[in-house]
Amino acid sequence: MPASRLWVVDVYGRVFSLSTAGQQWEQCRDAQMEFKRVTAAQQCCWGIACDNNVYLNVHASDLPIRYQEETYENQRWNPIGGFSDHLLPSDRWQWSDITGLKHQPLDSFELPSSSWEWEGDWYVDENFEGEPTEKEGWTYAIDFPAFYTKNKKMTSCVRRRRWLRYRRYKDMDTWAKIPSPQMETPDPFSDISCGGWEISEEPRGRLSLWAVSLLGKVWFRVGIYHHNPEGSMWEEVSVPGEVLQISCGPGDLVWAVLWEGQLIVRQGITRDCSKGTSWVEVESPSPDVGATHVAVGINTVWALTKDNKVWFRRGVDSHNPCGLGWISMVGEMITINVGLNDQVFAIGCEDRAVYFRQGVTTSELSGKTWKAISVPRDGDRSHSSASTNSLQSAGCFFSGEVRAQSVVSDVELDTEKVSTDGASCLVTSTSPESVVDAPTDNPDQPIETPKPRIPKVTSDSFISELISDREPAKTLREGGSAGPAVPEEEETLPSEGEVKALCADVAICPSQSGGPLDPQWSNVDLEEAQGQLAQTGAALDAADTSSLSSVATYTLAMEDPYGTDEHPLWAWVSGGGCSVDSHSHLNWFNSVNTSSLVGSVQSMSLSVTSAQTAAWRQQIFEQLTERTKREMDNFKHYEQAIEQSVWVKKGTMQWWRDWKPYKWIDVHFALEQFSGPEGNKDGILFIYYNFYEEKKYLHAFVNELTILVPVLNESKHTFAIYTPERTKQRFPIRLAAATELEMHDWLALLSVSCCHSRGIQGPPSKQAIWSITCKGDIFVSEPSPALEAMPYPTPCDQMFWRQVGGHLRMVECNTVGIVWGIGYDHTAWVYTGGYGGGFFQGLASSTDNIYTQTDVKSVYIYENQRWNPLEGFTNRGLPTDRYMWSDASGLHECTKTNMKPPSTQWTWVSDWAIDYSVSGGTDKEGWQYAADFPVSYHGRKGKTDFVRRKRWSRKCKLTTTGPWQEIPPIALSDVTILPCTAQSNVDEVPLWAISNKGDVLCRLGVTALTPAGSSWLHVGTDQPFKSISIGAASQVWAIARDGSAFYRGSVSPQSPAGDCWYHIPSPSKQKLRQVSVGRTSVLTVDENGNLWYRQGVTPSYPQGSSWEHISNNVRKVSVGPLDQVWIIADKVQGSHSLSCGTVCHRLGVQPVEPKGILWDYGIGGGWDHITVRGNSMEPPRVRLPSLTDASAPAPRSPIPFRNMEVNSSAGDS
User: Fold this and answer.
1) pTM here?
2) From 500's CA, which of 357, 513, 896, 989 has a CA 20 to 30 Å away?
3) Tens digit of each residue's pLDDT (9 = 90 or more) over 736-755
4) Domain named Peroxin/Ferlin: which ranges (predicted)?
């Protein structure tokens, strides 16, 4: 899980953040003023400063924020001058938007704020519906508005072209002021809350921002999304009363607190109405004490009352945002906030510490207990050791939290400098009335005191309340000191020679006789008062101390307002950008001071010299060498003992019978393993079953097994066993274990036995072929040199595949061993070099390079309805219709209640929600319409549409282990690595990727030693992309989301990102989906499953000339570094039925025949991805015998390849 941050504000208005992977508070150094409150999301943080303006801090990323501005230039044809700018009075503007209703000349576009900058000048878009236009980019039509084409016709009377310009958001990792005209927000804001990012799915990426003004009005920020983080304007939302505070959750929950203490809930919040429609009032947790604070999450609501009691609202969800009732919780807090995954953070009432609610899960949203976050600030560790030494040398201890602060810098704390400059720490007694007045060595010389920086203290009621309600006397009595408390009669004061105090370091303590115990803030310029105090150089009397204590309890004149051993005082917390859950490992709760331990370790390390270390190593090496000679060399003439043994493992399972009627029957399963005379291991599988009361069995040799595959089955724990013969038939041996643990035990045992019998051990080689099943399981195969040999290559069905731990959607490799993968949640992972993981334990897995891996995927079901003349669309269909709640095919009934995660390893992490990102579009309610089931669906209802469907999605999460490490933070959808064999270990390997938003990225710093790389370099595009591939000589090809192909020019090691994109025409009437580039070959797959080869690709003309069709029924293609062609094919004929997702190899690929000749079918179905871009093994040269050479041996008969045809379907043969 990538690191995220928890944001807090202290009582002095300084903003800090704490990383989930860190152990200290980091201050936002760029903040030029104090802040009142902040509200965070994962990508940004909003805040209200003390000047009452709203500020935005967008977290820096390698992926820039770009916004595309567009306008259209319109022209009409006339008989005299042809096309010109002279339009008819009824025509649209010469420069307009796409509708023609808004006038948009080029000079009318301005930057929304100073946080933006233009990337370049205006230019013409030469792409039209995936096809390149003429150089001028014109599209033609008969009139405005009409259907436009890129070709000019005799009836083309009007034309238009699109102009584009990009602006980039530049103020990253800094607080940028949000422009707010006076007419939008007449009064300043006092509270702010962001959320709503889970209301709508990407790519829209909306964000809801709510604010409360000082007059109790509620405002909503319109137009916040990924490409416009600032939003566009504020809109007022009517409320039933004056609002004190508001809270917005990640979903559709918005609660607010009124000044009278009541709570109101916003209703009607949907994907298309983020502001909601109305308010509903909810009773306060306590009838006598009103509410002061509320915090909401996804399915949880927490509240605080005026007596600082904590309350939890039960029964809250998207269907019932008001909940059912209040439950009183333990603790007293002044503020509370709900972060991601409904995790709760709060600030304590007494100690002002940040607390984390432990034990919050989806089943127990209220959690179990509060635990204080105890970590230092980023400046604490550098001061701790010097401060401790100074205190010990002075022989004084402090027994209260309220004490005077030192303005001595780090350099001045040195002992020699202290004695020279006359600076030392100030000493106070335990009595609040006593003040130590230490004289200086030379009273005639004026002491030059550096002018301290004092934060401006305003009369803001919020901060003054937080400062004033802390009781120093109470804290002193309760014993919050950092050092041991010394009784007053035993306290020893140092002499005047030992203690020297700066005039600025005067203890400001409340007087028990004249000063109030609960002082309040007032509008006093502390900087001026402190400056006058420093100039006089005299100690304050009791009256002066009393008057100053009424202004502030804590000394604000210092650079650091807190003492060295005093914990900071927090005023506000926001966990909206902090991604933690009940299983997260956090280092926030360890407050042990390790300075003494570090010092002791350093002293021990310094006592051992390098010469002693070298002598020890030499002595140990000599002893080991002598032992080896004594135990090994004297027994070399003896014959090595080889254990020849046989052992059997038995169990009971169920077997899917091979003949009709096909059904599950109970069988006895046995694995018999034995060691041969030469030490090699092998085994046999036996399946014993009864057939008409006759005992029979099936058997298979372990060295003949080609793959062991877990199979998805809702009711059974199933796995399949393949042999070469059963691979040809597409009908494996299917077995079902009683439990998932038993299935994993058998899979691990069988996999280890297969590897031993074939002599395979350790991690995959650099030449390995990687593949992924539709279930997300990862498999590798070690290729043989004869795999690409002609005319007798190794058949695909004889390849052995072994499983690697982890879970991915796609994987990509290259010839130097760099392997990247992408999960279903678009998280990027890099291969660490290990093997095993998952259910592989012990000897079947490496002990290092195995890490925890998570993945999140969506499960979909469909709600189907049919129209009837009486009631319209209802859930009552025809008898021949599909289920009203079904899967995508309509053959299986799937409802919200009976739908389960894919397996027991997956757990639900969200509720069912409408999915609007369906191909073909939806209406506002998520429906798709069609004439009947099943045909193509569209988002608008037509006159002939009698059926409709709605897709529901629910997310589930998998946690496993494998040799993979996460590469945060950008989510990816595709990745490609240069498969060049000439790359060395020190040279950078080009790696390109596409983000889930369609941005093209180039990874820098990728080598064999650092496969994860260092940073991303963004490559500009005019539209989002979906597929990319890099081949030899840095040929970069990509596919846009509209199905058009592009070639990146001038890519080289000196210019890794290239200079420009060249638009390549797609095959006629086809939209491309995926591309793969090899040494000289470029192959693509379109959305209809057709495989295309790019002809005419040469070093001088790398764009090629035309497309040639090779095959159909192709899902994925992978071109290797030697131009090998492998695909995932659908509709492959087996002995019983058609198989989808089959690995196929193109045979006959040679320089003279780059398209190949025929297909060889391998493992399948159920496969979803394959990559051979790491296999650079040159095939052996086969010398064909001469017909005139009588002594030459007879040629070997060719291998009879099955189901192969030239330039035909990859599956229908």
Assistant:
1) 0.77
2) 513
3) 999 988 999 999 999 999 99
4) 64-125, 137-170, 854-915, 926-959
